[in-house]
Amino acid sequence: MDKFEEKTTKTTEIFDGKIIKLQVDDVTLPDGKTSKREIVKHPGAVAVIALTSENKVVMVEQYRKPLEKSLVEIPAGKLEPGEKPEITAIRELEEETGYTTNNLAFVTSFYTSPGFADEILYLYFTDNLIPLVEEKDLDEDEFVELMEVTIEEAETMINEQKIHDAKTAYAIQYLRLRGLR
Length: 181
Fold this sequence. Notes:
This protein is an alpha+beta fold and 181 residues long. The chain is built from three helices and twelve strands, in the order βββββββαβββββαα. The protein folds into two domains: 7-41, no CATH class; 45-107 and 134-177, Nucleoside Triphosphate Pyrophosphohydrolase. It has helices spanning 85-97, 151-159, 166-177; strands at residues 7-16, 21-28, 34-41, 45-50, 57-64, 69-73, 76-78, 99-101, 105-111, 120-126, 129-131, 145-149. It starts with 6 loop residues before the first strand and ends with a helix. Residues 40-171 form the Nudix hydrolase domain.
């Protein structure tokens, strides 16, 4: 038993949407007092660090409505019910970039916002990109622009806050640690 564990005494579902669910939990704290926790339930997601044969990072630019601006990110997407993360990774790579791979390596997984959400993101790496013969369709509400950038260009985009999400910043640091210049 975790010494900081909070015991849930009641869960109230607030919203059940296409991507997320929102609930409020009444909890008993370790000191016996009570509190409420607003929790976002998410099915999980994947992201792919994809390198071209020229050591360029494959990225996509897309508009992020919650931020009211476009970001440059590594290819990513949410898990479908019952889908294995590596299958999601290949599907998202194909849909968003026009590439596939037969060599996908698991890097790590991490919680994106553990203070209020249970979303876990599985991160994969490939440097064996194969252009698709026939491009896959994006989701009907998804609009992206493909980019292939050097590490230096990506670092400039981080400084300019064009890359401004944790998974992509993590990806660039991962590539630096692997010695990519």
